[in-house]
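Protein modeling request. Please complete all fields; requests missing the sequence field cannot be processed.
Requester role: graduate student
Desired output: 3D structure, token encoding
Chains: 1
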Amino acid sequence: MVEERSIDSVILHTMDARAVQWKIMKSKEALIRCWSQFSTFSLQGFCHYLWLKIRGKSMMVTGSCHGCGRCCKEICLEGSEGWLRSEERFQWIVDMFPEYGRFTITGKDSQGYLLFSCTWSTEQGTCSDYENRLPLCRNYPESSLIFAGGRLLSGCGYGFAEVVPFKKVFRQELKKIR
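Delivered output (178 residues):
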């Protein structure tokens, strides 16, 4: 005996299958985003990140720029596959994004990452084209620096602090009011 199905049940089944496919696709995208974030972390940085998450905290940038320009003379650059270790990979980035041609390789750090200096940095430590500086310069330092095994240069006016995110504190305070 052949089971008869109404057109409505076939459409619902198809819609359910598409919903499952969509959820799987979104899960894959989330995993890829997660991997791209964690792929730049050092082992110690990843452990630190997990420890913060377990305790419900995050890393926050504190302080302000002192304008010394040292960060422009000893910087690591990150590509789509993590922090740069090879001159060939850097050249590929410059070919794709010519604005990164302002950086020159000055050596390697203790972890084997390439160190760069920005040619737009003046003798006074300021940017010769401050209004058009790159996003990585505008956003320096990001908290991900700590998780990647990086460090702030001595004398830098910035710092990092472990904090409870505002969103979490706000929710706790709202619960008290209700």
